[in-house]
Amino acid sequence: MNVDQSQIERGYAVADVYFNQENGLRPLANRSEEDRLTFFSRYEQILLENSGLAVSLDLAKEIWRLAMAVPKDFVAFEDTLPALELLKSQGYRMGILSNLRRDMGQLCQQLGISGYLDFCINSAEAGAEKPHAPIFLAALDRVSVAPEEAVHVGDQYHSDVLGARGVGMYPVLIDRGGWQADVNDCPKISSLSDLTALLEGAPESLR
Q1: What SS3 string covers the chain?
Q2: Mean pLDDT for the stretch of residues 71-79
């Protein structure tokens, strides 16, 4: 099986939409091990189909199992640290909201971004996952600001944009690959380095 990087990137973009929509309806943490395997098999199938490879659900399941056996971890995008450093120098208070059920403080430390952040909140701590309100409200409470004073940047329309808008925050969609051309009801950026210019025109630029 052979695909090129751009095809895989598109596959991930489409599969991640499925992931976030399904996880918002019924969090993976609340599913049985068998249900999670079925979910990720379908996720892998969607990923490969949108990368130019049609595979059966059974084959997708085996590929998922192989993929999970490969050691991996998170790395920051190249634009992350410079953007956070600039925003911090301009006086913005920043934090991370994540549906990952792991120690976010430790992960942020590992990525070298913890020094720029005022908080890290995961879904386990908030008691709810994006797009549900409690995790966004927890962030507002952590820095004592009103929703209309806050901007949430995320790469998923359903969980990030709709979730933030639902509590009155300004949503910004980061679309690094340009795969979400159909989204036209919120500001979009292709890199975190575009965020500073967008914020300079706030609040008009965020509407």
Answers
A1: CCCCHHHHHHHHHHHHHHHHHHHHHCCHHHCCHHHHHHHHHHHHHHHHHCCCCCCCHHHHHHHHHHHHCCCCCCCCCCCHHHHHHHHHHCCCCCEEEECCCCCHHHHHHHHCCHHHCCEEEEHHHHCCCCCCHHHHHHHHHHHCCCHHHCEEEECCHHHHHHHHHHCCCEEEEECCCCCCCCCCCCCEECCHHHHHHHHHCCCHHHC
A2: 93
